[in-house]
Amino acid sequence: xxxxxxxxxxxxxxxxxxxxxxxxxxxxxxxxxxxxxxxxxxxxxxxxxxxxxxxxxxxxxxxxxxxxxxxxxxxxxxxxxxxxxxxxxxxxxxxxxxxxxxxxxxxxxxxxxxxxxxxxxxxxxxxxxxxxxxxxxxxxxxxxxxxxxxxxxxxxxxxxxxxxxxxxxxxxxxxxxxxxxxxxxxxxxxxxxxxxxxxxxxxxxxxxxxxxxxxxxxxxxxxxxxxxxxxxxxxxxx
Length: 238
Fold this sequence. Notes:
Strand order of the largest sheet: 3-2-1-4-5-6-7
Helix content: 40-55%
CATH superfamily: NAD(P)-binding Rossmann-like Domain
Shape: globular
Radius of gyration: 17 Å
CATH topology: Rossmann fold
Largest sheet: 7 strands, parallel
Mean pLDDT: 94
């Protein structure tokens, strides 16, 4: 399967990895629809993406927003979910129920809700690609990121069974310079990237384009489901 003449809905598609996925899908002949909470973010992304790309807004905390989005965009071939707020390393002592709920709201509950709404609307041969992360296997990222990514991996497997023959996979990026890390100072971010580049076997931090190709693979590979595809330069080997 190729993405030519398909429609790819990217929730979280206006920056970082999501924007890269939208660009990669458009370059392969798909109509990408980028979705974000803010109209300004959508407009900025559309100005940076190929002609024919579409955009929409959705508030994932609004119970009816995804149904309205589905009515607006119509049926799609592929759903990609990359939405998430900037990452914060929260110590265990500060993990109140409110903090945990807020962290899981967009990344996990939003993903479940998006699949619930769009899964039945995907055209035959369609797919869902979720976003996990190498924090699932690396406790150094802290309790929240590690537990969230582990939950996304389990969710991917469960949905692959429930939605079959719709394919459900996930991509687990390593450290990629994106707005995900904007909660850190610029100096701290650069130090983090430099340290990672020295540590991983491939000798550099990944780029958004590296990860975007993994999402494209998940959409085009017709005999893979329930898979979590890591893109981390060998970081999990060392």
